[in-house]
Amino acid sequence: MNLRERAIHSVAAYCMGGKLRAWLALAVITLAVCGCLAVQPRAGGEWRYYGSHASGDRYSPLTQINRGNVATLREAWRFDMPEAGESQTNPLVIGRTIYAYTPGLKVIALDGATGRLLWTFDAGLKGMPMGDGRTFAGPSRGLAYWSDGHHSRLLVGVMNYLYALDPATGLPLADFGNQGAVDLRHELRGDFNEHYVSLTTPGIVYKNLIIVGFRTTESLAAPPGDIRAYDVLSGKLVWSFHTIPRPGEAGIETWPQDAWRFTGAANSWAGFALDEPRAIVYAPTGSAASDFYGADRLGDNLYANTLLALDAATGRRLWHFQTVHHDIWDRDLSSPPSLLTVRRNGRRIDAIAQPTKQGFLYVFDRVTGAPLFPIEEAPYPPSEVPGEKAAPSQPRPLAPAPFARQRLTEDLLTSRTPSANAWAVEQFRNMRSDGQFIPFTVGKQTIVFPGFDGGAEWGGSAVDVRTGVIYINSNDVAWSGALKASADKAGGASALYQSQCAACHGADRSGSPPAFPSLVNIGDRLSAKDIAAVINNGRGRMQPFRNIQSSALDNLVDFLRTGREPAPAQAPPVAPPQRADNSREMTASLLSDGLPAKYRFTGYRKFLDPDGYPAVAPPWGTLNAIDLNTGRYLWKLPLGQYPELASQGLADTGSENYGGPIVTAGGLLFIGATIFDHKLRAFDSASGALLWQVNLPFAGTATPATYMIDGKQYVVIATSNARNPKAPQGSAYVAFALP
User: Fold this and answer.
1) Distance from C-alpha of 171 to C-alpha of 173, rounded to nearest angstrom
2) Is 358 helix (H, G, I), strand (E, B) or coil?
3) Which of 27, 110, 144, 276 could form a disulfide with 155 if both were Cys (CB 3.0 to 4.6 A apart)?
4) What is the pTM of this model?
């Protein structure tokens, strides 16, 4: 019996026994037969937002799959995608249909009960060459959905374009923007052709607005990270909030004079949360450009590294909290916030919880911005690097306790083998390690722990809205970084490499795989044409460098392929980017004075032992349950395994994990996330006991979703192996249900 038949049967049975009820029965049955009765699954059976609800709670009220029967969960269907790249999508489920992305950024609609493909939208924006005939596009983590009860549309990001699609067909709706799309590079600053903008995390819908941030480069030439709202019907810009304040706007005093003309980033790329009844949108932002040397942006730099509460209708700032002042450690707010209600002294308080890379969890009254646990401004040492001026203090919550370790000491180094420990000790004694917010120095590596991809990441946290408990998965691996004096400005391709590429790929081109691949012998994998295309157009998490052109580009490509300086070096390596408001002269002056470029980051270095495992003691990844009514931990456990170590008896190491958890009213927490063991796990949300796990075809580096169709509850997750290039590559959506 389907839903419509069930509704007819139930109403008829209830109304039998009286003329009035009989007439009511006839009316309702007529509505059902003609299709006017709502026959779609109730909202609780859908997954209508990125993260389940506008509040970002990643919570489902479904209970069919529960503690008592989850052990019998079985694969229901699988949709394979023969494309290169990573799947990070938390799909939407509207009615019977799943809306999602492929790794190549095609938008797809699947039947939620069978996985059958219904339609595909291909924007025709191709990724960058892989060297084997395939292309690669950076991942997109989700979509947005709007409906007024009569009409509906999907709002999807494909690179720098925001599209409005017909959910029934996947076709662009021509009344939105320019024939169905808005180019997000426009209406920022200066020449839009110079901007790198990518909508990797979806916007959020408030009434007839779609509110978006974007991802951009983290070096100079980045556009400002404006948060913008567009009309969902016309695509017209309705409001814009300047995260780098302009004259007359609050916060401009935290920057040097006229910095807004050339400084960039401070963008909101991790995703939003929305208090719809109060019309408040919450936006976490990242660091300002450049990441690691801020001599051209002295000051606290509002509203970088800030949780912003904005009026969703107008973009007006209501309150803010900056988590890092004058960030010189790349401490973006990389995780979206979650809304919940906590209990204090018999009173219910509507709250917002914001996890961070450094392992801190900030909790505020979501209306006033008042902290619900004490926060201190702790003093930190000054920078020793000429021109730099680190903030004298940084905020630190006194509760809850950090969910990642804060300071690496010699006793926390790996003891996996005696030789690994001896190597780690030798390396560690040549590095600086004194906890959070220690400014980098020149010529000596400084430990960053948790690392640059540490603490909470983009997968987000889950909240049990009934209890006020938050669940956070965390990376607990050390990285290191340092600064070095820039090469001579008149230098050739090697100097250009050091200024533009070394931050990610290392001064020696060795990178820090898999996040930052080695460029050694790249000429064996890619042609000169392919390398040039990647430089100018970007690939994956790498932004494009369109200001490198002509002979400078040719020389850089030659240097990457051979490791040698072309002779003779030709042309100045990078033209200062054209800016609005006659700021080209200012940017050129700053570059010639050497302020932003006098010192360079030597590159992201993951602290790994000679066998490729983290050089710190486990756990390398954790899953945490924190009661936000009290700030106390309910449980904490290692998350993930290295299969080869588990076979040797090292089963509880934890591992790096990307993608987040979901929690259900059935008492379950579902999470994939782990890179190496390819498992989807279900835990008892109250105790942390592992109740079920299954091997996925690839790593579940995405946040799952759960939904109900025809009375059956499903759990679906996107899988791929892009973060582990040694593993077989591929991607698939896999759904599970009870037998």
Assistant:
1) 6
2) coil
3) 144
4) 0.86
